[in-house]
Design a protein that fits this description.
Mean pLDDT: 90
Oligomer: single chain
Low-confidence stretches: 133-159
Helix content: 25-40%
Largest sheet: 6 strands, parallel
C-alpha cells in the first residue's frame, strides 16, 4: 500500500542516524541542499517502485515559524482598537436594521471571523489605484492614442504610482467594509442607518441624502463603491483567477503593464489580486475549477485568503474531518503555494514547551466539529476537554487561567501572524498562494453566538450580549450608547483616525472603490468591415461565418483591433475561426514550445506570448470568467477592451447563467455570441445541445440586449451599434447575439431599416397573391407573419405559399423579442404612472399598417414571442409557434416539422387563424 509504514521501528539506531544526518545536512548546507536531497531520495523511491510519495498535508500548525516572522510594521495597539471599532459599527448597523424592521437580515458572524484578515490587508497590503502620482516627464501607462496599436510598448510607471490591487471581499462580511468606509469618511452615519434599505433611503426617494447600502458587494447598485460582485458563492474565486490571468494577458500583449516597475530586480509596484473567501465556499465547483490554471500560468500575482471558520450556514463545514487539511491537499496538489495560518502568538509558548509533540498529536485527532464546540465553550470547558485529554497537555496548560485559555487566539485573529502570512504571500514568486486562516465564526460574540450552530443567521442581540461584546473588545462606549446601538467614530485628530488615514494614503487611497474613467475607443465605419454583409446580394453563408468574417475585418483596424479579445471555450474550428490562428495567434504565457502537427497548413495552430485569442479549453465557467475580466477592464484597469465570446448557445445562460448575472452586476461591456443556436438549427446534435431557451433567460437580465438576427446584414448593424454604445457612448450594457450554422441566401439589408433593426423589428417584405391565379387585392385575405433567426426563412417560404393560395402576407423580421417587450413595458409603465403621452409600443407601430391575424414563429420556446402579446395591435388574433419540449436528433426539416415551426406549419396556423378571424 502507498505510504504504508511499519508500526514498530525495527532499528531505532539506524533511524536516528538517518535523522541526525539529514539535520546536519540542513544545518550545514541550508534548506536548498536539504530539499535537493529529499528530491533525490524521492526519485530513487520512484525508480525502485517503492510505492511512496510525500504527504500533501502537514501537521496542524503554522507554516511560518516564529523565528521567520518579520517585525510587525505598525502600531499593534492602535490597529486592534481600530479593528474593534469596525466590529462594533458593523454589528450596530445590522442589529439596528433588524430592530427597526425585523425582516432585513444581515450577517455579523462572518465579518466577526474575518475582521482581522481584512484589517491587516487594509492597513498594510491592499493598494488602491493611484493614477495622480506619476513622475514628471514619465509617460502615462496606457496613454497611447485611443485604441493603441499592436506595437504599443508598455509605458513606464511613475514613482509612487500604483494601478491598484484587485480585492474580492467575502460577501457576508460587507457590514465590516461599510463600517471601515464610515470611519474613513466615505459613508455617513445616515448611510449606515439604511443598511439593506435601498428603496426607502432618502437618496432613492428624493435623489439626495443618505444612500441605502446593498446586502452584498453589488457594483450595479453601488457603482462608485463595490468593484466585484461576490454574493453568489463560487463566482468570486473563479473570477479572481481569470482577472489575475487577464492582467498577465494585458502585460504580455503590451497594452498595460500590470507587473509594475523593477528596483534591483524586484517588482515594487506589482499589482495583485487578493481574494478573501469562505471555507464553505470552496465546495462550489466554480471555486475549484480553475486552480490548476492558476498554477499552470504561474500566477504569483494572485493571493487567496480562505477564512476557515469551520462553519457553513447550518453547521460545521467538515464536522467529521478537517477542512484546512483537505484544502491544503487540494491546493498543494493543484500546484499552489500553501500557507497555513492556524494558531495565534499566544500558542507560541505552548508549542515551545511541548517537547514531546503532545499538541501535534492532539490536533491530529481533533475534527472540525469538535473545534467548533471548543469555540463555542468557555475556558473551563476547553481546559477540561482539550488540555484534560492527557497529562502532557494538562501540564502545558498549567499556569494559564481559564480566561487566558479562553483568549487563546486562532491564527486568523492575530494581526502579527496575519501580517507574516500576507508578507510571505506577497514575496512568493512562481506560484499563486493560498492562506488557510483558522478563525472562529462569530469571534468575540460570546454567548451571543461565537461558534454556535445558529451563528450565521445571528442578527439580534439582547442588552446583556451587547454589553458583553463591548467589554470583550474594550470599546469606549457607555452602557447607554451600547444599548442604543450608537455608532462610534473617534475624533478626526485622534491617533486612531490619523493612523488609519496615513496608512491608506501610503497605499494610494481608499477601497473598495470603483472607477469608470477610460478613453473612448473609436469604432470604424460599418462599411469598412461589413460591406459584404450589408450588400450580400443573395450570397449563401451562415450568420456564424458572416460574424467570423466581420470579426476578421475589425481585428485589422489599427485603433480598435488591439482592444478586441476573441474568446472561445474549445471550438474555434467548429465556428470557422481557424483562419485567426495565424492572423492574431492564441495567447500563451510561455509562447509555443512545440511544432504543431499541422504546421504546414494555412490554418495551423499557433500559440504566442502576444497572442490575442483566449482559448479556454472545455470550460464554459472559465471562458465566461475570462470574458468578464475583459468586459470590465474599462473599470478595473481604465483600459477599454472589447471581448467577443462565441460558444454553443445551449452552454451559455443555461450552464453559467449565474456567472453571466454576476457579470451584469459588474456592469460588463462586451458581446456574447450564442452560436449554433435554436432548437432545430443544429440538426443531429440532439437534446443536450439544442437551445430553445437562451433568449428567454437573456430577457431577464436588465442590461443585456439580446438579438436573434436572421441575416448577416442585421447582425452587422447590431454589432456596430453595440460597439458604439459600449466604446464610444460608454454605456454599461452587453449584447447577446445568436448565430446560426445553417447556410442560406443572405439578402442585402434594405435601406433605412438600421434603426428598426436595433429597436427589434422591421418589415422585411410583402407577398401578394398572384393575379394570374385569379386573386385580387380586393378579394384576398391578409396575414402578418413574424419570425426571427433561422426560422425567418421558413416564414418567408410560408408567405410565398400563402400568396399562392390568394392570401396576402406581410413578413416582419424580429431581431429582438426582448427589446420589443421592454419597449412595450416602458410605454405601459408610463401610462400607469399617469403620463398623458406614454407613447405607443414600437411593435404596435410596426404592425398597425398590416391586416389580419398575426403569426409569430421562432426556434425558441413559445414564451419568447409571447413576451410581446400585450403590445401587438388590439382586436387581432396573435398566435405563437415555438419549439417547446426536448430536442431530437434528426435533419433540420424533420425537426421543424416535429416542432411545428416549418413553412407548412406556419401556413396551417395562418389558415386556422384566418378561419377564426372571419
Amino acid at each position: 500500500m502507498p505510504n504504508e509504514s511499519l508500526t514498530i521501528d525495527p532499528d531505532p539506531q539506524e533511524t536516528a542516524e538517518w535523522r541526525e544526518a539529514f539535520l546536519a545536512l540542513a544545518a550545514s548546507q541550508g534548506p536548498a541542499r536539504a530539499r535537493q536531497m529529499l528530491d533525490e531520495l524521492a526519485r530513487l523511491a520512484r525508480a525502485g517502485r517503492i510505492g511512496w510519495q510525500p504527504e500533501l498535508s502537514t501537521p496542524y500548525f503554522n507554516t511560518i515559524a516564529v523565528d521567520a516572522q518579520p517585525v510587525f510594521p505598525g502600531d499593534l495597539a492602535i490597529e486592534e482598537r481600530l479593528g474593534s471599532l469596525m466590529r462594533w459599527n458593523a454589528l450596530a448597523m445590522v442589529v439596528r436594521a433588524n430592530q427597526a424592521y425585523g425582516e432585513l437580515g444581515g450577517h455579523i458572524a462572518s465579518y466577526a471571523s474575518a475582521a482581522d484578515l481584512f484589517e491587516v490587508g487594509f492597513n498594510h497590503f491592499f493598494h488602491a489605484r493611484n493614477d495622480s502620482a506619476a513622475a514628471p516627464g514619465r509617460p502615462e501607462q496606457g496613454s497611447a492614442p485611443a485604441g493603441g496599436s499592436a506595437a504599443h510598448e508598455v509605458a513606464s510607471v511613475g514613482a509612487n504610482r500604483h494601478r491598484g490591487d484587485l480585492v474580492f471581499f467575502q460577501p457576508h462580511s460587507s457590514p465590516g467594509v461599510y463600517a471601515r468606509a464610515y470611519l474613513e469618511g466615505r459613508l455617513a452615519e445616515q448611510d449606515l442607518m439604511h443598511f439593506r434599505q435601498e428603496l426607502t433611503a432618502p437618496a432613492a426617494q428624493t435623489g439626495q441624502g443618505a444612500r441605502g447600502l446593498t446586502s452584498y458587494p453589488h457594483p450595479y447598485l453601488m457603482p462608485d463603491f463595490w468593484q466585484f460582485p461576490t454574493g453568489s458563492m463560487g463566482i468570486g474565486p473563479i473570477s479572481s483567477i481569470y482577472h489575475a490571468r487577464f492582467m498577465r494577458y494585458l502585460t504580455h500583449r503590451k497594452l498595460l503593464n500590470c507587473e509594475g516597475r523593477k528596483e534591483n530586480g524586484i517588482h515594487v509596484d506589482k499589482r495583485r489580486v487578493w481574494g478573501v473567501f469562505g471555507d464553505g465556499e470552496m465546495d462550489e465547483p466554480e471555486s475549484m475549477s480553475a486552480l490548476t490554471l492558476a498554477a499552470r500560468e504561474r500566477l504569483d500575482n494572485l493571493v487567496w485568503v480562505v477564512n476557515c471558520n469551520l462553519q457553513r450556514l447550518d453547521g460545521p463545514v467538515r464536522g467529521n474531518g478537517r477542512i484546512i487539511d483537505e484544502l491544503e491537499k487540494l491546493f498543494a496538489g493543484a500546484g499552489w503555494n500553501v500557507i497555513k495560518l492556524v494558531w495565534g502568538s499566544d500558542w507560541d509558548g505552548l508549542f515551545a514547551r511541548d517537547t514531546t509533540g503532545a499538541l501535534t498529536r492532539a490536533f491530529a485527532h481533533t475534527v472540525d466539529g469538535q473545534m467548533q464546540t471548543f469555540a463555542a465553550k468557555d475556558g473551563r470547558f476547553n481546559r477540561d476537554n482539550f488540555f484534560g485529554q492527557n497529562e502532557e497537555l494538562a501540564r502545558l496548560a498549567q499556569g494559564l487561567t481559564d480566561e487566558q485559555i479562553d483568549r487563546l487566539k486562532r491564527g486568523g485573529h492575530d494581526l502579527v501572524k496575519i501580517h507574516a502570512a500576507y508578507a510571505a504571500a506577497a514575496a512568493h514568486t512562481g506560484q499563486p498562494t493560498v492562506i488557510l486562516a483558522h478563525t472562529k465564526k462569530g469571534y468575540g460574540m460570546g454567548s451571543g453566538g461565537q461558534g454556535k450552530m445558529t451563528t450565521h443567521s445571528q442578527k439580534k442581540f439582547d442588552e446583556t450580549d451587547l454589553i458583553e461584546f463591548r467589554n470583550r473588545f474594550n470599546l469606549p462606549l457607555s452602557d447607554e450608547q451600547v444599548t442604543s446601538l450608537s455608532f462610534y467614530k473617534p475624533a478626526a485628530d485622534s491617533p486612531e483616525m490619523q493612523y488609519m488615514h496615513e496608512h491608506r494614503q501610503r497605499l494610494g487611497g481608499y477601497l473598495p472603490k470603483r472607477e469608470t474613467a477610460c478613453d473612448v475607443v473609436p469604432v470604424p465605419a460599418i462599411d469598412s468591415y461589413a460591406a459584404f454583409a450589408l450588400a450580400a446580394n443573395g450570397k449563401e453563408m451562415s450568420t456564424t461565418m458572416a460574424f467570423v468574417r466581420l470579426l476578421g475585418g475589425l481585428l485589422k483596424d489599427k485603433a480598435l483591433g488591439p482592444r478586441i479579445v476573441p474568446i472561445v471555450a474549445d471550438e474555434a474550428r467548429t465556428f470557422g475561426m481557424a483562419n485567426l490562428f495565424k492572423q492574431i495567434g492564441i495567447y500563451s504565457s510561455v509562447g509555443q514550445r512545440y511544432a504543431p502537427e499541422d504546421i504546414g497548413s494555412v490554418l495551423s495552430y499557433r500559440e504566442a506570448l502576444d497572442g490575442q485569442i483566449l482559448e479556454e479549453g472545455i470550460s464554459e465557467a472559465g471562458a465566461i470568467a475570462s470574458w468578464t475580466a475583459a468586459a470590465t477592464s474599462y473599470s478595473v484597469h481604465a483600459l477599454a477592451m472589447l471581448p467577443f465570446y462565441i460558444y454553443y448557445s445551449m452552454f451559455g445562460f443555461q450552464r453559467v447563467g449565474d456567472a453571466i448575472w454576476a457579470a451584469a452586476d459588474q456592469r460588463a461591456r462586451g458581446f456574447l455570441l450564442g452560436a449554433t443556436s435554436g432548437r432545430t438549427t443544429l440538426g443531429g446534435e440532439g437534446l443536450q445541445h439544442q437551445d430553445g431557451t437562451s433568449h428567454l433567460v437573456a430577457a431577464t437580465i436588465p442590461n443585456c440586449r439580446a438579438y436573434d438576427p436572421a441575416f448577416a446584414g442585421e447582425m452587422a448593424v447590431i454589432i456596430d451599434h453595440g460597439m458604439r454604445e459600449m466604446l464610444v457612448e460608454q454605456k454599461d450594457v452587453f449584447y447577446y447575439v445568436t448565430l446560426m450554422n445553417e447556410n442560406y441566401a443572405q439578402p442585402s439589408l434594405p435601406a433605412g431599416v438600421a434603426a428598426e433593426v436595433i429597436r427589434g423589428c422591421y418589415k422585411f417584405n410583402s407577398y401578394l397573391p398572384i393575379p394570374d391565379n385569379g386573386y385580387s387585392a380586393k378579394t384576398s385575405k391578409n396575414v402578418a407573419l413574424l419570425g426571427s433567426g433561422a426560422i425567418l426563412t421558413e416564414v418567408v417560404k410560408a408567405a410565398q405559399l400563402l400568396a399562392a393560395q390568394g392570401i396576402a402576407a406581410e413578413v416582419f423580421s424580429v431581431t429582438s423579442w426582448s427589446e420589443l417587450a421592454r419597449d412595450g413595458q416602458a410605454c405601459e409603465q408610463r401610462a400607469l404612472a399617469g403620463d398623458p403621452a406614454p407613447g405607443q409600443p414600437f411593435i404596435a407601430q410596426q404592425l398597425q399598417a398590416s391586416q389580419g391575424p398575426m403569426i409569430a414563429a421562432t426556434d425558441y420556446v413559445r414564451a419568447v414571442p409571447e413576451g410581446i402579446r400585450a403590445f401587438v395591435p388590439a382586436g387581432r388574433r396573435y398566435l405563437t409557434l415555438g419549439t417547446d419540449g426536448f430536442g431530437r436528433s434528426d435533419t433540420r426539416a424533420a425537426l421543424r416539422e416535429h416542432f411545428g415551426v416549418d413553412a407548412q406549419s406556419i401556413v396551417r396556423a395562418a389558415l386556422h387563424a384566418l378561419a377564426r378571424h372571419g
